[in-house]
Amino acid sequence: MEYTQALKKKLENPQRIVITTHHKPDADALGSSLGLAGYLKKRGHEVQVITPSDYPGFLHWMKGNDEVLIYDEKDSGIMGKITEKVSDADLIFCLDFSCLSRINGLGELVEKADAEKVLIDHHQNPQHFADYEFWDTGAAATAELVYDLLVDMDEVDLIDVDIAEALYAGIMTDTGSFRHSNTTKHVHEVVGELIGYGADINRVSRLVYDNNSPERMKFLGWALYENLTIVPDLETAYFAISAEDLTRFNSKTGDTEGIVNYALGIEGVKIAAMFTEREEGVKISFRSVTEIAVNEIASEHFDGGGHKNAAGGKSDLPLEETVDKFLNLLRENKKEKIKLHTN
Length: 343
Prior knowledge:
The protein is α/β, with parallel strands linked by helices. The protein contains 13 helices and 12 strands.
């Protein structure tokens, strides 16, 4: 990688380092962050992981979770610590996001900081705000890129069980447990190495996928039985979850994670979506089969983006109007397949 040797030289002396990742971190975001943090601490650096929001409880098992600072404008004490850490940092690692808007208010602090920035990411259309870029859209996960960076810097001997399991969790989830088309030969090679460093893949899988609350299981059952809508002529299926629905099932961060994939698993469905009504607007998750590029739908119509077959967006319209907008877009483009089959 172009910047590898320069970064390695920078890390030869102790640095004050901040690591941050995107809003509502998933397993790749948190796993790559805590995995990298574990390595940097072993190298003698002062490291602080900061997230722009909370994240699912099924990720709390990762080593270093108890030291993470969560951005919260309502907590002056936390905000003071975060502001100080970012302002004093020598290096800021930005993981699993390509533009500073993805970290909300934290983005302004990072942009203004005097620290050099390091981008490690696999999403499209990077903002190019960083001094060092380790960016590859061909990578399945940011955790994969973190591992590759350690290889390129000849530092893999510092990987221990905790680092290996954090990185494995990121790769496992971003490949859909190795079912998605981004599962390459290299992915399997990396996973094999992580197992060699002690990653217990059965344990990680259980902690991530088999650690559901009773409320989440009831919510999932309700969503599948009563909320799922299938539109055969558009080869589409979707969920539309209201704020009232979330309150009814006492939904917590992470409870809606992965539910959209059930819609894509229906015979004949090529596009799946999940619309979730939140305080800040309607959050949207898109999924598609190989030939359909939902990231273009997300970026051009819903202020979002992501990967070709897995993307996200948002809408300021009410829930029903957002769903109607999505369906109308599909109907308008049904014949020409514009922006759906072009990639």
